[in-house]
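Journal club side-thread
Mid-discussion, someone asked how the predicted structure for our own chain would compare to the paper's figures. Pasting it here so we can look after the session.
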Amino acid sequence: MRNNDEILSLFENYLAQIQLPEEPQLLYQPILYAMSGGGKRIRPTLLLLCCEAFGGDVREAMSAASAVEMFHNFTLLHDDIMDNALVRRGKPSVFAEWGENVAILSGDAMMIYAYKLLRNVPDEKLPRILDIFTEMALQVCEGQQYDMDFEQRQKVSVVDYMQMIELKTSALLAGAAMIGAESGDASEEDCRKIYRYALELGLAFQLQDDLLDSYGDERLGKKIGGDILEGKKPCLMLNAMSRATEPDREILRSTHLDSALSNDEKIARIKQIYDKYEIPRLIEQQITIRFERALSILDSLDIEQQRTEHLRTFARNLMGRKK
């Protein structure tokens, strides 16, 4: 069985061989730009690892893995438009480079091309994989809509937020894993389990990302305090709002709007409230619970434990853990 790096190398080689039309240039050039943007290929790597774990041929799963990666990048193009984001992966976004109209149309073409890639899935597996892919795609859109809805709502519960990130973030990872298992010889029960493994892992990853936004290290390349300055409602904010006194809630609600404070002062004020109610510790506990739950699911699969080792390594690498 191939390890994560070997799987990634195989996928990159396959992806490089996909030939897009040259014209019209303003439709396809942004797609090539987006697809070669240095993404980590997390979802196709997991798909192929799951396929091989269940005895499948990764060469037959490459087109499905490429479809998932194409769809993921389509969502990023449209996300950048909705967020007015000028940078993606350290370089100008497609939206910034070519404008809104090009980003919309190229994104649409990416979604369509993702389905075109699925036509290379073996005939006997295509109906089921197509169902999983389509459901996954709809869930991502639902999650994005909930995320936009939350920006307009004064009150968002932690439960609401977890449902949103399950759809927007985890469903794509879980769908990729399930497609990989279906591409192998996994039973229906094991397909459901591998979906849950990836769903829990995706939730842990998003919670960790939220935590790092306020408590990370800028040396790792992540700007600290972005969510605070933008007045977003990540899990830290929602947990703090649910535990704080009304005076502290008002600080949480209004600090990002206070023009008398510098950005550093705004971030420090909010983090002081977070620390007061031990929010980082609570989030770290949730991350650990989700992560360990994901690994425990692998123990219940109806395959030899050694065949899940690369899936464990994938989980540890994704979360930046050594154990």
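Post-session note: The mean pLDDT is 94.
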